[in-house]
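Worked problem 6 (solution included).
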Amino acid sequence: QLMDAFYEECKGNGFTLTDHLAFEASNVSAETEWQTSHGNSRRRLDILVRLSDNAKRTTKVFGIENKHGAPELENQIADYQKEIEYRFPTLDNQIIFFLTPTGRDSLTRSAESKCKCIPVSYKAVCDALCELEKSAVGEIGLIVSSLKNHLLSQIVGSTTMNDKARQLVKALYENPNHRRTIRLIIENLPTFGAILEQFQFTVGKKLRDLEHVTTRFEIRTYPAARQVKEKLQEIYLDPVKLNEQLKKAYQFEVYYLIHPDRESSVSMPGIGDKVYVQLAAWCHNELGEAELKKLDLARGMNFLHTRQEWARWKTLVQGRHIVLQDMGAKDVEGLNDIIFELVNETLPKLESNLRSACTEIDFDSI
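Solution. The predicted structure is:
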């Protein structure tokens, strides 16, 4: 059903009937987080599906990369294409399905690769689930129905609504009577970046006043450029000198992060959205991930441990959250409260764990 749905949506976009028929097989297996081994980057393709014959020889492969609420990394899809070509050089009909809510094309694919990259939308997945729902029974039927309803209500429906909203705004903007009003709204729209300067001042002063804190932090943002603060998504407390040594010796860095709810589709938080704080590590490669796991820097931190992973971020300790109210003084106060609650609870233990475990670090120079 999935291939049928993909073919119906993609047959005019590079996915041919020959491709479709080639993926008919009785023996199918799937691997999640399929890791690349070729080239300079180590990446993980969301799903790799293998089709095999009765002798268990792989005859066809295709990948699925899901992108919802996250940007593509540099050369990401091209790296997956290279890896599939490298690992399965004798197989034909190599394909990566690039799955997004709208079915947009990948920005990082290679058009010259033998392994095709075919864009496909969540609607195709919902169509496949509708067909599966007709024959699925028991727990499997419940799972299929729940997944279909979630996609339709939370993603496909939201995408359709956003498309209609864009069309409406475009029509309003074309009317000169409404254009000035829309410009005024855009120019004065409250943004997360609006609280940055206030937050930098207050959090910097409080950090300097904490007697038990010996580590010195700089405040960084994502995106980094101050001139795009209206697009601000995240704020970092960066122990710069410590991180310079951690990166060199152990291939990871540690940060206190302030970020929007990663379970939602929000990238730039606004009034009414949740914002969380956490202590997290950025691992530069597999060695960094292994070193972080071995050092166990979160030991003894009896806080809110809701461990999450995204890209190469590894959550050590998850703090509380606030709901943004005014993009002003109230939110600055709320963010100060939850970030310093987390710092006071975790930083002394983090420093102690680092000193006992990281023998390569010169703590006198930090």
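Discussion: The longest helix spans residues 138-174.
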